[in-house]
Amino acid sequence: MSAPTLAEPPVAAAKPPRPPRNRLRRGLSLLVLRDYLTLLVAVLVVLLPLVYLGFSSFKSPSDLASHQFTLFPDRWGTDNYTKALNELPFGRFFLNSTIVTVVGAGLKVVLAVMTAYGLVFCEFPGKKLIFWAILATLMVPPQVTVLPNYVLISGMGGSDTYWGLILPGLGTGFGTFLLRQAFMQLPLEVLEAAELDGAGHWRRLWHHVIPMAAPSIATVALVNVVYEWNDYLWPLVITNDPNMMTLARGITLLRNSDNLAATVGPIMAGTVMVLVPVLLVFAVLQRHIVNGFTQGGVKG
């Protein structure tokens, strides 16, 4: 009788060799360098036109008419700003832009908040269909609706009026979508506790939902402020009276087809004056954009 043989222990699988630490560091460094270069190119693409615009607003007509590219003016001067301020009622344009921006952006935010709240916390027939219809508006370019809006608003007597400038743009599919996604991520326990305490929809909205979703609401407000302030196409169509023109629309009055070279400088100076206020607002509130988009991320 043969002695039993012992089973051989299983051979452990050989671990793959680790790459050298220096190679890992070199690979990470190349990835970081690539990301920084990509970010630098993107920043330059955005900033270079603005930098050129700012420096060109101080150039003389002869510098602007030169075919040789120069970033800095040969002789610095504020003649373009003086001419723009003297030839146009910038005070009136600024007032019109402020009214349209504050009222238009404010109403957009209020409507977006209420619509998003209803889509998240209220139950009614066709809620999903309404949400998909709101999303569909994001696929429609605003230029497509210019003609129908002009026919409707001008037929109602809205040409050269504040309500004619504000009314067509009150619907904001982007704001409603972003706030809906943000509201869906709010802690339901807080809202359920408020409901048990007898809080209705109005109280839950203003005392609980709005404070918790403040970053997203601030993002929607900032985006709408920038859009309303810089909007050019609709004011161009609906206004002909200089007393009702916004800043973006009023700058076009500086254009002189008989002497285009002499009007380029004042137009650039006027454009700088239009951009500076909204850039300051954006710089002060830009941190809310990151928080808002993070809070309003798509929830599965």
Describe the protein in words.
It contains 14 helices and no strands. The protein is mostly helical and 300 residues long. It folds into two domains: 29-77, no CATH class; 87-295, MetI-like fold (Orthogonal Bundle). Helix 5 (127-137) packs across helix 8 (173-184). It is globular. Its main location: membrane.
Predict the CATH topology of the largest domain: MetI-like fold
Protein structure class? mainly alpha
Rough outline: globular
Average pLDDT for all residues? 81
In summary, what is this structure?
With 300 residues, the chain is mainly α. The protein has helices at residues 21-56, 61-65, 79-87, 90-121, 127-137, 146-155, 162-166, 173-184, 188-196, 201-212, 214-230, 233-238, 247-250, 260-295. The protein folds into 2 domains: 29-77, no CATH class; 87-295, MetI-like (MetI-like fold, Orthogonal Bundle), CATH 1.10.3720.
